Amino acid sequence: MSQFFLEQPSQYHTIALLSLARLSNGDPHPEAVHTLRTTLRRLQAALELEGDHAHAAIVGRCISRFSGLRGLQVLQTYLARHAAPKSDLVILHRAVQDAWKDLAARQICRKVERRLSRIPLHAPLLDAQALHHRVAAVSQRQADELETLLESATAKPRRKRIHPLRLKLKTIRYQEEYLLGRRRNRSHFLKRLKDVLRRLGKYEELAEFRKLAKRLHLESRPAIVKDWRHVNKRTRALLSELGWISRHLHSRKPHISAERPSTQLAG
To answer: CB 114: neighbour CB atoms within 10 A?
Structure first.
């Protein structure tokens, strides 16, 4: 149990460093950037569950360093998939290259690697009972925080309110997967939560695309705005249905798997 509780953060740390090495070698492939950010979010979630909020905050700042590049790369893929005008594809290619050159010039990969190397991954072990109480306490706190975020987003469904709600749900998802290990694929709660995150992720992408299309003066902007409006309506409806998540967190009795987790991380 204690070995399980401690082993995954080191795995996340290793995968993040491998992704940074790939980027440092001049290969800003979208897959590498996505893997780095997703793995760092998993590490951040694990650190928060362990109560190491200071280092979790450091990891959060590391993630944000790559947000601009990631947003441009995802928009580039979206435009290619939607047969955008060649001029838009040229603009995005240049924007991605410029964003990467800026990160390289500021040695962001090296700085992030240095910060990650200072994060202790050998926190005091928690036995099964202590871990059970920790998870129960964290679940109650998350339920309260989620209710506040959901109330705010439902009252005024704007991106600046939906975004922190989505990040909180991501943390809950990654912590749940961290604790369940291989058993996570049998979790009905996780399956529903992933679907919610997929739908909120689509909203977040299109909201970012709309902003970037305006800044970059893309011909595709009207089509992007149309897609965003369609998703925006569905997102507003979705927000009114999410009370089940906080109710689940308030009522559940955490069941922790004693299995050692797989080294394969979900995306």
So the answer is: 10
